[in-house]
Structure formats: structure tokens, C-alpha cells
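From the pipeline queue, job 12 of 40. The input is one protein chain; the requested action is below.

Action: predict structure.
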Amino acid sequence: MNNRILEVEDLSVEFSTYGGDVKAVRGVSFAVTRGETMAIVGESGCGKSVTVQAIMGIIPMPPGRITSGSAKLDGNELLGLSPKEANEFRGIQIGMIFQDPMTSLNPTMTIGDQIAETLVVHRHKTYAEASRQAIDLLEKTHIPEAAKRVTQYPFEFSGGMLQRAMIAQSLACNPSILIADEPTTALDVTIQGQILELMDELQRTENMSIILITHDLAVVARMADEVAVMYAGQIVESGSVEDIFYESSHPYTLGLKSAMPSNIGDRDKKLTPIIGSPPDLFSPPHGCGYFARCPYAMRMCEDMQPTNFSVQRTEDHHARCWLQHEAAPAVAEVSQSNQDKDNAG
């Protein structure tokens, strides 16, 4: 039995602008396993959100366009569907919550009506049935006084409560996959923790998969089973969460870890920023997108697009880096990352 619920292959997305065509996503491939969390991590502008928006069919066309690729949910193609066909899976098989719930919810409708609308449209419930279920959904997401809250408007909710309401709305049709696009970025640390606990609890009770879009490695370490690291529109490293944190095999992943504060080790150790800026995606580099910022760059990296190498120690760990070629020189940091895994074990 195939345990992969969503399979994305060679997805590419471009946007037409007055300055030219922006190649926002370049040949992205990944798979989501049933009941597990896939985290897509990377800095702002790397293509994380555009990737999932293309899968959901919500990028504006024009100026956007999908130039290649495939996205299959349980073997059924999602790309290229008409709006009517896309509505057969959006909100039903795949739910989505956004970074800023205040701008994602309708300010002129009560929270209860917005949740009920999903059930009326997709499940053909009566308004009375949908309203009762809206209360149940708010209770499921631990919103107190749910019967009162369904009659309130978004401006009457705090940021954390709004995000819970968005989660309740996305769960209305019992989706197989929940896409969470930076769900905790606009929240303070305490509320972030509560939302992540809620998502973790709902994943267990509802047996759904989660695609988590984030730039926060601490969130990735807490929530993810599988991780895809994106840079300049490409996935540069992918594998299990253990692979990414203990056997980091791409210089960009190593750079992200070095820039992340830690509560263990030497307190006097300084954070190491990644110097420079991402490449111009109007005209992406012919070779590795990380070449200009990479401390281990070789001549071939500038002109030759690296292969997505399989990292030897684990079957599902891949890195798009020439350092993984058998003839490449050894890099001490990569070797040390592997040693850290052995020491942790």
C-alpha cells in the first residue's frame, strides 16, 4: 500500500512582471506521508508559500503560471483543474490556515457564519445543522464559551483565538491534509506554543497529515517528521527531521543552524549570520543558487546545476550540492554534523 497521500514532482511556477518573469519555484519535488508532518523551511522569498498555493490552485493567473510539474492527491492530479473542479478538493480534502487570520477572515461575518458557510457549501448541511457543528468545532479547538463566540465578529477575537477559529474552519470537512502557512509568526511565544500543541493534538485525533510552512527551525524540530529545506525556489535538502538536524549535508542548512540560538553549549558562542543575499530570480544562476554565499563553493558550482544527491547514510536523505559527489573534497562541518548524530545516539 502506498503510504504517500500527496506527491509533488518537478513543480515550477513563474510570475510575469514589468521587469520580466520571476521564476519563483524551480523544479520542486516532495511527498507527504499519511498522518505525518512535512515541514518546508527557508527564508522569506524562497518559494515556500507559492509552492503550496500552486498546489491549492490559489495563485492568481495571470500574472502567475505553472510551467511544469505534477501534484497528485491519492493519485488524482490537482494541477490544471478548473475552479469548479478545484473546489471539489479545496476545503474538503485539503484545508489551509494562513499566517494572518485577521486578513483571511471576513470582517463583516460572524465567526460562526464563516465556519457554517464551509459546511453548507461543501457538505450541503442546513444552516441550523452547520451552526451547531460550528460550535462543536470551536470547542474542539479549545475556544471557551463556544456558543457565545460563534455570534462574535473577528475584531472581537485576540490573535491566538483567531488562529484557533481558522483551524476550526479548516477542519470543518475533515480534510486529509492541513496546510499551515506560517501559522504562529504573528503570535507571541506563549500563544505560539498553544497553537502548536493544538495542531499536534488534532493531528493525532483526526489522523491527518500536515504541511507546515515556516522559517523557524525550533518549530520544525518540535513538529516535523520530514523536512524540506528551500532556497531560491528549489529544495536544496530533504530528509527526516533527524537527518536535517544531525546529518546536515547542504551548506545552506548548516548556515541556518549556525544562525539559530541554542540553550545548550557555550554561552559565549556568537551566532553566525549568512552573509549576502539570495540570487535574483528574474535571472536565476546557471549553477547552484547558493554559490555566491557558500563558504565551500567550488568553480563548478557557479556554472553547473548540482544533482539532487542521495546522502549515503540514509535512503531518503537528499542534498542538492556538489559536495555530496564522491570526488568532492571533504568538508569538516558536514563530517562534524554526522559525528554529532553518533554522539547523540
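Job complete. The two ends are 31 Å apart (CA to CA).
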